[in-house]
């Protein structure tokens, strides 16, 4: 009976440790993620209103580049730290982002917006996917709670609303 009392806590600890280390995509490991790139592609609207942007996060900094059809409107970098980056990698895993079989048939849908997420472990790309939001549907090869992750990474840019004006 004593042997069982030791086995249960060890198994429980292993389950907890494994669940906190891996993401939905088995290639991802929170401790090995070194860079996250999130891009938002705006819909086709006149240049005055068009705002696409890319946010690149590492444990040292987070940078946003805002453009309107290739014309750079803002390029700003903020300090980041390991604790903030860990929050971001936790969110990446909790939103269960992973690649799925690509859905290409957009059923004639045009004018939507897109999200791209690329995750690095050193120089290796461990997740690379996109989602195209159009007509209430999501197309592409990225699965998971994309919008929740987008909200999290944008929350690290203190003046994002001003930058997107």
List the helices and strands and how they pair.
Blueprint: H1 2-21, E1 35-41, E2 52-57, E3 61-68, E4 71-79, H2 82-94, E5 98-103, E6 113-121, E7 124-134, E8 137-143, H3 146-154, H4 160-163
Antiparallel strand pairs: 1-2, 1-6, 2-3, 3-4, 5-8, 6-7, 7-8
Describe this structure in words.
By secondary structure, the protein is of the alpha+beta class. It has one domain. Helices cover 28% and strands 38% of the residues. The protein has four helices and eight strands; from the N terminus they run H-E-E-E-E-H-E-E-E-E-H-H. An eight-stranded antiparallel sheet has the order 4-3-2-1-6-7-8-5, covered by helices on one side. Strand 6 and strand 7 form a beta hairpin. The longest helix has 20 residues, at 2-21. It is globular and about 40 Å long. The model is unreliable at 6-21 (pLDDT under 50).
Rg: 19 Å
Count the DSSP helices.
Answer: 4
Termini separation (Å)?
A: 67 Å
Q: Give the overall average pLDDT.
A: 85
Strand arrangement, major sheet: 4-3-2-1-6-7-8-5
Structural class: alpha+beta
Question: How much strand content do the residues show?
Answer: 35-45%
Q: How many domains, as an integer?
A: 1
Question: What are the main properties of this structure?
Answer:
single chain; 165 residues; alpha+beta; eight-stranded antiparallel beta sheet
């Amino acid at each position: 009976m004593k042997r069982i009392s030791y086995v249960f806590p060890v198994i429980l600890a292993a389950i907890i440790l494994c669940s906190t280390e891996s993401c939905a995509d088995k290639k991802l490991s929170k401790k090995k993620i070194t860079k996250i790139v999130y891009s938002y592609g705006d819909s086709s609207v006149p240049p005055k209103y068009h705002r696409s942007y890319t946010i690149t996060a590492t444990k040292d900094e987070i940078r946003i580049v805002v453009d309107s059809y290739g014309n750079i409107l803002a390029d700003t970098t903020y300090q980041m730290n390991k604790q903030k980056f860990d929050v971001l990698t936790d969110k990446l895993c909790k939103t269960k982002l992973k690649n799925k079989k690509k859905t290409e048939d957009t059923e004639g849908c045009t004018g939507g917006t897109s999200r791209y997420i690329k995750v690095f472990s050193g120089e290796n790309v461990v997740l690379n996917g996109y989602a195209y939001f159009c007509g209430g549907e999501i197309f592409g090869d990225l699965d998971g709670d994309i919008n929740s992750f987008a909200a999290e990474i944008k929350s690290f840019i203190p003046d994002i609303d001003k930058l997107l004006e």
